[in-house]
Amino acid sequence: xxxxxxxxxxxxxxxxxxxxxxxxxxxxxxxxxxxxxxxxxxxxxxxxxxxxxxxxxxxxxxxxxxxxxxxxxxxxxxxxxxxxxxxxxxxxxxxxxx
Length: 98
Fold this sequence. Notes:
Elements: H1 3-21, H2 26-51, H3 59-85
């Protein structure tokens, strides 16, 4: 495994670890998800350059589009929960309540 792929795999794993451990604030969870999506984007970019298959070429752009949609939705949810609850702590949120 090349050092670049090892670094990107480690970044993805550290983002998953950060998402599972640091779940106090909603913004930290969103940043961990963004780190995972960025690592996936770079890994898919390297994969499409190294394999040079035409079917894999649009995959990094699709991942980037999903990442932008996820970031917009996440920030909208962050603003909505901070307006209704007064903070962004994840333990104060209960999904089952209206």
